[in-house]
Design goal:
This protein starts with 15 loop residues before the first helix and ends with a helix. It has a two-stranded antiparallel sheet with strand order 1-2. Helix content is about 30%, strand content about 15%. The chain is α+β, with helices and mostly antiparallel strands. The chain has a domain at about 1-50: Pemi-like Protein 1, Chain: D, CATH 2.10.260.
Length: about 70
Amino acid sequence: MLEAKILGKGQLVIPATIRKKLGLKPGDSVKVFDYEGAIHLIPSARNPVKQATGILPSRPSLSKKLLKDRARE
């Protein structure tokens, strides 16, 4: 387990090994939240639209099914 230091202004130094592993660079942002007394840091998405691309299956196409159902009606 690695340790991080809290600086005078409340800044947190994330260990270099974790920054490199997650690809964090100066200027990047992270989401910070408290869950049952534990602090969680989640890297913010650099391009959320690009990261979401492809998460849904391309088949079966719901729009094609809806169009077929409507044509039958």
